[in-house]
């Protein structure tokens, strides 16, 4: 079994996905996302800080650290790279030079932010010293609402952990697999949501947010590897995970992989 694209035959198997990962299949790409956070008895996105912003208009954002050492000549983070979608629902990557506890504006307004990381550091990191010195935050301009954080505890991991993604305009994605882990002593409900037509931002909204898959009473881990790509997520389309625990709190992580095809 295979598919033809631009006169070439590609087999739908492990080799095919390897070719996609290496950029050898025109119009195809793979997206691997992971997220983690502490859940309570109230439903919340699975990400650090429990917040994932989905505004209806692109917002001006800024980056700031809690430490003066995260600066252009400091021992901590010297640059961060931010990836999301602009007002036209197209992916944009921005790299900004840090300035410690003084906020630095992102040059392009974003309507979604789904990945960011430390891309330059003043420290050659080890298991005892990370690549950033303080808690890193992307927030609305003017010290506004927090969009995402990268903390320093239990270790400065230098990478956001956002269990959500938005397929950009002009592309369609399919789910290849997912993995969920939660505290084995806490039953957790996990919801995977989708919102296609995410760019329909006036009522009545054609982009209804609806459940795609749900796991109830998860303890330990659940892994799903599909026999064939699952779902049809036509961009712009939000996909992501939320969850809640039966009592108290629980640390939860999710991983998922998408194959993305140009329309």
What layout of secondary structure does this protein have?
Layout: E1 2-5, E2 8-11, H1 14-21, E3 28-39, E4 44-45, E5 61-65, E6 77-85, E7 91-97, E8 104-105, E9 112-121, E10 136-140, E11 146-150, E12 164-167, E13 171-182, E14 188-196, E15 210-218, E16 220-234, E17 237-245, E18 250-262
Antiparallel strand pairs: 1-2, 3-18, 4-17, 5-8, 5-10, 6-7, 6-9, 10-11, 12-17, 13-16, 13-18, 14-15, 14-17
- Content of β-strand: over 45%
Tally of individual domains: 2
Secondary-structure arrangement, i.e. CATH architecture of the largest domain: Sandwich
How far apart the termini lie comes to 22 Å
CATH fold node name of the largest domain: Jelly Rolls
Uncertain runs are 1-11
Shape field: globular
**Largest sheet report:** 5 strands, antiparallel
Report helical residue fraction: under 10%
Q: What's the CATH class of the largest domain, please?
A: Mainly Beta
Number of strands: 18
User: Could you state the oligomeric state of the chains shown?
Assistant: single chain
Total helix count? 1
Q: Overall mean pLDDT score?
A: 91
Question: What class do helices, strands and sheet pairing give?
Answer: mainly beta
Protein model, in words:
This protein has 263 residues and is mainly beta. The chain folds into two domains: 26-50 and 163-262, Jelly Rolls, CATH 2.60.120; 61-150, no CATH class. It contains one helix and 18 strands. It has one helix spanning 14-21; strands at residues 2-5, 8-11, 28-39, 44-45, 61-65, 77-85, 91-97, 104-105, 112-121, 136-140, 146-150, 164-167, 171-182, 188-196, 210-218, 220-234, 237-245, 250-262. The strands form five sheets. Strands 4, 12, 14, 15 and 17 form a five-stranded antiparallel beta sheet that branches. The chain has a four-stranded antiparallel beta sheet with strand order 3-18-13-16. A four-stranded antiparallel beta sheet has the order 8-5-10-11, with no helix packed on it.
